[in-house]
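Summary for the steering committee. The consortium agreed at its last meeting that each partner would contribute one worked example illustrating the joint modelling workflow. Our contribution is presented below. We chose a case with several input lines so that the handling of multiple components could be demonstrated. No manual editing was applied between input and output; the record is shown as generated.
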Amino acid sequence: MTSPRHETALIVGAGHGLSASLVRLLSREGLHVAVAARNTGKLAALSSETGAHTFACDAVDPDQVKRLFDDVEKRIGVPDVVIYNASGRTRGPLVDLVPSEVERALAVSAFGGFLVAQQAARRMLTKGYGAILFTGASASVKGYAQSAPFAMGKFALRGLAQSMARELAPQGIHVAHFVIDGGIRSPGATDTLDKPDSMLDPDAIAENYLHVLRQPRNTWTWEIELRPWVERF
Amino acid sequence: MTSPRHETALIVGAGHGLSASLVRLLSREGLHVAVAARNTGKLAALSSETGAHTFACDAVDPDQVKRLFDDVEKRIGVPDVVIYNASGRTRGPLVDLVPSEVERALAVSAFGGFLVAQQAARRMLTKGYGAILFTGASASVKGYAQSAPFAMGKFALRGLAQSMARELAPQGIHVAHFVIDGGIRSPGATDTLDKPDSMLDPDAIAENYLHVLRQPRNTWTWEIELRPWVERF
Amino acid sequence: MTSPRHETALIVGAGHGLSASLVRLLSREGLHVAVAARNTGKLAALSSETGAHTFACDAVDPDQVKRLFDDVEKRIGVPDVVIYNASGRTRGPLVDLVPSEVERALAVSAFGGFLVAQQAARRMLTKGYGAILFTGASASVKGYAQSAPFAMGKFALRGLAQSMARELAPQGIHVAHFVIDGGIRSPGATDTLDKPDSMLDPDAIAENYLHVLRQPRNTWTWEIELRPWVERF
Amino acid sequence: MTSPRHETALIVGAGHGLSASLVRLLSREGLHVAVAARNTGKLAALSSETGAHTFACDAVDPDQVKRLFDDVEKRIGVPDVVIYNASGRTRGPLVDLVPSEVERALAVSAFGGFLVAQQAARRMLTKGYGAILFTGASASVKGYAQSAPFAMGKFALRGLAQSMARELAPQGIHVAHFVIDGGIRSPGATDTLDKPDSMLDPDAIAENYLHVLRQPRNTWTWEIELRPWVERF
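What follows is the complete predicted structure of the assembly.
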């Protein structure tokens, strides 16, 4: 009835506060945590603080992603939990967007998610359990004006997550998608006095990921929405 | 940053195992719990076990619902948490359905939800906080053949919950809707050997309600889906 | 490959310009048209203009709806096309809504739709063809603040339509739901100069209903959205 | 009140019967039609039959797409109607998919749609009108098992279409997305006797595109679903 105990986790993408909150929370829960980003420089402090292992990886490169999983496996073992937390975006009027930037944004938000998920699924299927979590956004379910590339990438990631949930859940892999509907508060930032608690707290978001990881397989969440109390939706 | 501490809860509807699981879990968490159903006879054992207060109420009757809240308030105080867990259904080919039964099903699933939510909201707005949770089903988001009345009621309840979330969240009331996508295991039933964990566990569902109740207001869920690992969706 | 030729139509509800546009268009297309409303007084001019037959009927009363279909059948034959175009609403802060008005709104928007659809389906199944169309709104897919009763009714109607489409389409009955996302221009009103074409044109909406009625059964629409070019969505 | 008269059309992608049906229908309606595909060999017969101009273009290459629009403009003028009808797919268990094939599928289904839409929008905005239509599939709204790449591409295309509708509709460009939910009958194929009309008719689908093109701007469709009467959904 209980979920298999998760001992290892890999978090890919480190663009904002959520990854740091996840690393801290999962480390505190006793998991061995690996975190990967294109630029590991900005992960040094987090690594010192939490003991998390850091890896350099461009998630849109199949070879680098394969190597990442091989390296993580050597260092902490096959990850029981894999979280894809990277995304790419470029904004502006549709007619002014630069094709190469759109291509890159789509690759980071969606194709990289596929590459990471595929490597994760291969290893988890051998064990018969594991969890793959995807970080979505408002743009996962609503295409906003002047933001087509982000909508394309986040819609695609949701399609991937839904297809994987249908395919892999019956094989014991928990796949879940989080719709983060609102801005995430920057680390160290404080709320403005007139609108308290108006931005998502990355630590609170991370608690939701942990909650989903603890669900027994007879009661799994595929999708959950999160937004501040005052957010329009 | 933390949610206001919930001290009292009212659960309306007691048709299946979920209400019992909620009563047990919230009681164990230290809340004073009231539970209402049309027929309180079947609540006696649960009440003895948990100390929950029981009330007779037909949720589709405005006067009875009003009186329920007055009575609950006298006994345990204004409920900080209200969960609407009742639903009505009648099945069969559309052409064979009995209008009075359809009307009743729609009233129990949706109109009763409105009546309970309105009484709850009035009291919570005075305090400036509180949580109103609605139990949905697969039929909340998909209208199945030969089940039009259940789809009507559950779609309507979701419309109510979404409208309330938009209206009341910025006033401090947390409104959430749970899509229970699958059959709930009967109390005491055991899994068949060939399909373990193929039914939702009411205790595990209740843990998800508790999780949502604990969310700080900067990171609230409006909707969450739950289903067994092997459920088609 | 072609749809059966529709010769008779019944339109229920006559609250705004859409019903009049439908009566005119279907009459012009050569169908014998019946139109029902609680108050037939306001239908007199339309009847004179188009030759449509008018009937008094409160759509939430099972007996009146049954009688309506019997009367229509005597006058123009079994309707090949039935359009449910009635809705009820009451607005305001959730806590201020009057329960009896909410109940009535829900009944007109949803329960009446069921009663009409059931009578229609019984007669169409005997013939093996027919079309049942439902008029939805923005509130069919989005629950707005201070408008819970309308959301409840329109969500419920959509659940009914979706359940019916799954059940009845394979039996030859075309069921379709129209999401009218925006205000409908009042008959005779002209656009303001600064925002031309900013309201839905009831004649143009009616053309969409006719288009769906002409679809061959291998290419049926279940749902279609309509909104003015400048409408936010 | 009427839509601007469309005189020229460009259809991109020619993988199945729908493009041919669109070319025939729009030609018959008097439009000058251009059709582009990677391999124009298979378009020769269609071109002879309809007089449509054919162009070779790999829709995922920004330079080729730019040149396509320049060439089309020289031959028939700026296209008033642009239809993106290309898609890529690769199927199988997630763990067996070949990354380069997934990348290509995503590019053809989604990035190519962006490139074509961007070139179209630039030219249409100058004129102040035009229509850009996207062909979706069941996979646009539901991610099926063993079909993650198609879900990713079609979800992404839908996100693009929705973002564009929000951005460009108020500037006079009609953007619409068609959810083709079922198999399209191959040209010349006949229905099996036991399941008549069980596949979508490409000519009937094309009639729906034409219908949307004729909508006045006060009553525009953003999304429409199409499926055979017997299709499960």
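The longest helix of chain D spans residues 99-127. Chain D is about 40% helix and 15% strand.
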